[in-house]
Amino acid sequence: MYGLGLVKGLMVTAKNLVLPSRMMTVQYPNRKVGLLGLSKATGVPLPKLLLKDPITSVKSLLGMAEVKESLPQHPRFRGEEFSWYEQRCTGCASCAKYCPLGIIEIVTSESGDQMQEGQKYHLDKFDIDIGRCMFCGLCVEACPYDALHMGSGFEEGTYRRQDLVIDKRKLVSAKKTPSTWFRPQLASKKYDPHKGKNVKWDGAGRHEKPSLEQQQEKWAKR
Amino acid sequence: MTEILILRSGFDFNGIYGFFDEFMPDSLDWLVFLITSLILAIVIINAVVLSTALLTWFERRLLGRFQSRLGPNRWGPFGLLQPIADLVSLLTKEDTIPEGADKPIFTLAPIVFLAPALIVFSVIPLHGGSFLGNLNVGLIFVIAITSINTLAVFMAGWSSLNKYAMFGAMRAVAMLISYEIPMGITVVAVALVAQTLGLSDVVLAQDIPYILVMPLAFLVFITAASAEMSRTPFDLIESDSELGAGYHTEYSGAKFALLQLTEFMAPIIVAALVTTLFLSGWRGYGPIPGPVWFVIKTFIVLFGFVWIRASWPRLRVDQIMGLAWKGLLPLSIINLFVVAIEVFIFNPGENGLSTTDLWIMTGVNWGVTIIAIFAIFNLLGQSKSERPVPVISPLANMYANTNTVKKITDLAEAE
Amino acid sequence: MPINTQPVTINLGPQHPSTHGVFRLRVTFDGEQVIDVEPVFGYLHRGTEKLAEERNYVQIVTLTDRLDYVAAMTNNLAYVRTVESLTGIEVPERGMYLRVISSELQRIASHLIATGFLLDELGAFHTPLIYCFRERERILEMFEMLCGARITVSYMRPGGVLQDAPTDFWPRLDDFLTSMPGYLDELEGLITENEVVLARTRDLGILSAQDAINASITGPVLRATGVQWDLRKAEPHEVYDRLDFDVPIGSVGDTFDRYYVRIQEIRQSLRMIQQCVAQIEPGPVRSKAPYFIRPDSVDAYVGTESPKGELGFYIVSDGGISPYRMHIRAPSFINLTVLRELLIGWKLADLIVIFGSLDIVVGEVDR
User: Fold this and answer.
1) ipTM for the whole complex
2) Beta carbons of A17 and B66 less than 8 Å apart
3) Number of CB pairs < 8 Å for A and C?
4) What is the total count of domains within chain B?
5) Any idea which of B198-202, B221-225, C189-193 has the lowest mean pLDDT?
6) Three-state secondary structure string covering B277-341
7) What is the pTM of this model?
8) CA-based nearest distance A28→chain B, Å
9) % pLDDT > 70, chain C
10) What domain range is B337 assigned to?
11) Which of A36-45, B151-160, C350-359 has the lowest mean pLDDT?
């Protein structure tokens, strides 16, 4: 009959109104919680919460209490904060060559250091201009020594464009929570960067770090 | 304090006038009149604007839930302060007037738009009587006043010197005037059954809510009213996907705030009118006071409006005009005729129609409603619903240079 | 008495809510009636074809993400297939299956966007749009699992795909495949039988099969006219010849058919993914291909069925590490050829709906 389609449409929207499983909003960065949600989020049992913090309890009843929340992300997420290990980097500048935008600037000078294998350059400059970066990950794909990894975060807002140029100092001091994107060695360890655990330089490589004897043996052969 | 006063039935024009008149000399009657009007104006404006603010929050939260998202929830408890944040945002913006616009009309339009909405609210009976007392021509007053906003929309659209605004305004004039007619005819039917033109008396006459007595009138009224206030599926005046914003394209700042305020006020007024005319106003059951019943009923109607807005797309201009002239006008006339014949047969005396009469009318009118709607809409719409079965066009053959079909059959055979 | 009317010219766009980006239509109206249309584009021109001449064959993959930005996977597929045909690089089995799975998922996402925005332009207050986006969101989450990004995926490489799917991808895909038909039914309940939608879209903007072929229109717009033409069947690539699927066609060629063909294609895509999941076997996903590809001095054109139509890349190589010239046959752009003929005579509201039903993405129109 004419008009049934309209009623059917109304029923569909009503179904979505009633069913809570249809909600898709993730409240970022803070989620509003009620009293029960607050005790669940903080892990404090309800009676204890009421006694300990009555003001927050009242606030949560009014819908004004907040807890931290963000969208769950896969460990492979190609994030903004590059993880770069100076100890692994040989300064070969593969990343700079492979970058489609040419935003990685590397200046090297000769040095006699030998961290693992092969000659290593001294890195005078390692800049990534992430203000122009499109996070394609080609630099990470290109890195033969697993020195450069995609990061996991995305909260790197700044007020000025020039602050978006990450220089060597920033890269060294940054949090090392690399993404497992194109790094099967991290994925096979079930590493999840969003849990906040840092990865040291010797844990990020494709191969285990050789023991001292193995290294000495290798050097003796040369 | 004013909120409590509103709930008392004595808080109307005559009551306040009498209160001040007692200790004022007769020579100062004009002053008493002025003070009374001022108090009433303040009360009405505050009540209406606050309830509109609440409605915007209600509508946005509800729409959010319909669309499986949250709606405003950041400012204040459950996002209740969101309207205030919006207002501050709008008022702090620059109030621009486009170059070449008709400045006086451009400035006047929001005021002309707002005033009728406020005035209509003064005659709607919340409990016993309205703010202006029991106006004995309330129905005519409401119909007359609400048609002014057509003028305001046209003023806004015309004076903006913007083609989008002009389109919106032209659509508004065509549509709003068309929908006045079925709306007016249904209101005549209501007046006929209630045997009065006063809004309070209409409520008092509803021993059975008129939604049961005249379902056809209810449907026509609510359709025409949602077109009058240009809500989905009739929101072509400011159809955002076609015209951007319609008649208020060029407005900003405080003027835009006024226009938006009035637009959100319209559902409240329509819902209050529907409650008064068809849902027996403040009358209810049990110990719950009348005004509370009134608010509950109003919110049920508002929920319906939001539900429809969340579900249906918009009709086209000619379809909307067609619906008014080919659908609603015949329906409203059928309703008027049936009701008039029934009233003529029952021939009510001084006390109006009795409850028995109303029940008999209910039975008859439901039958008439179903037949009439079925007849009219099947005539209008059903003819086009059949579509041909898809036939593969001979112009292209995608299996021409491949052996896809063969490969699939090979796979099936291998299995 | 004749009324003297004056035609009004309106700029719809480049800043307009319904022009799918920065597209501009200079329309002349007689009242509400459209009497002349002149499309103006180029506002989103980024010179992709020129940029490609300065990048090597792998780096261009990142550029193709940004052509049709709601269907990056199929853009990648179309491009890498051209490079493979240029150089003769082989693709391992599992890589082909992953390509098909990801590009069919992308087709679903793209069609959901087309449907949602069409309904938005019909005036439904964002409700169908948000339902569509809710389901698309789950596809994007799966893309994030595959390749770490949601929109600009850069997943495919000449010689396969970048990396294998993680283990937690498959349960998520199964969950999606089981629940999606139900959601699709629900979406159809909101749209397909809705009288307002039918009144607005039926017999609106009819395109005949002859006109469509003459204007070299492809994709759902062509299939809505009744022409059964799908490159996945006509020139089966990847593993499409091992999959059993239908090519849905429309009956009249109006706006409703264009919408309905897309909905049916979503169902077919789900069917295809189901078969792929059943057929896929472990193995390598990427064959050994040099990073700096140096094809011989040849040219190649390969067309691929993208959600909008036939997306073709024509690459001329001079033997160097980057193409000498790359041309993109963008389906959105070529589907716009009939725009003027489709729109004239209809009303303003219809103009928006017909334009929306063609489902263009300005990133691809302007390139």
Assistant:
1) 0.84
2) yes
3) 83
4) 1
5) B198-202
6) HHCCCCCCCCCCCHHHHHHHHHHHHHHHHHHHHHHCCCCCHHHHHHHHHHHHHHHHHHHHHHHHH
7) 0.88
8) 11
9) 100
10) 84-379
11) A36-45
